[in-house]
Amino acid sequence: MIKQLIIGDAKQELAATRRILERLPEEHMNWKPHMKSMTLGGLSTHLVNLVNWQIAIFLSAELDLSTLPDRREALENREDVLKEFDENLVKLEELLADCDEKTLGEEWTLRHGDHVILRQPRAIALRTFGLSHMVHHRAQLGVYLRLLDIPVPGFYGPSADEESK
């Protein structure tokens, strides 16, 4: 039962994330709303990377951020973003289908070198570090689209762009 809840939650959030990525305006991939913000392409690429991190939760007992590049180059167009997102999604869905409740309960660690950032059962790490983190950045992307006057899809009901008038 726990596995079914986790998989259902993950599938819903991943599908919602794909819906917003489908709206990326290619002419604005280098745009950012503030000098401290990521570009639209950078934020979209980060959302793709978060699926990679969700995959990492199932592939090993820990992820050491100090072993990863600081920042990868932003994907430059919607097609590349969707292609990589979909490829990663297939891998994640396979891992979710193959895991059992014992695996979901095993400890997983996120670290940066010797500094432990979090240590949680895989199921909780998937929810917090994986899905909630993705939802946070998806909301940021929604603000970017709103500021660019691009219709924002609804995630938990209709958005202001989808409401009947």
**Helix/sheet category:** mainly alpha
Q: Work out the helicity level.
A: 55-70%
Order of helices and strands: HHEHHEEH
Number of strands: 3
Question: Strand fraction band?
Answer: 5-15%
* Order of adjacent strands in the largest pleated sheet: 1-2-3
SS summary, helix count: 5
End-to-end distance: 40 Å
Family: Belongs to the DinB family.
InterPro entries: DinB, DinB/YfiT-like
Keywords: Coiled coil, Metal-binding
Protein name: DinB family protein
Question: Strands, helices and their partners?
Answer:
Layout: H1 2-21, H2 40-59, E1 62-64, H3 78-98, H4 101-105, E2 107-112, E3 115-121, H5 122-147
Parallel strand pairs: 1-2
Antiparallel strand pairs: 2-3
Note down, in words, how this protein is organized.
With 165 residues, this protein is mainly alpha-helical. The chain has 5 helices and 3 strands; from the N terminus they run H-H-E-H-H-E-E-H. The protein has a 3-stranded mixed β-sheet with strand order 1-2-3. Strand 2 and strand 3 form a beta hairpin. Helix 2 packs parallel to helix 3. 25% of the residues are buried. The model has no long low-confidence stretch (mean pLDDT 94). This is DinB family protein. It comes from Paenibacillus vulneris. InterPro entries: DinB, DinB/YfiT-like.
Give short descriptive properties of this protein:
5 helices; DinB/YfiT-like; 165 residues; mainly alpha; single chain
Q: Short description, anyone?
A:
It is built from five helices and three strands; from the N terminus they run ααβααββα. The chain has helices at 2-21, 40-59, 78-98, 101-105, 122-147, and strands at 62-64, 107-112, 115-121.
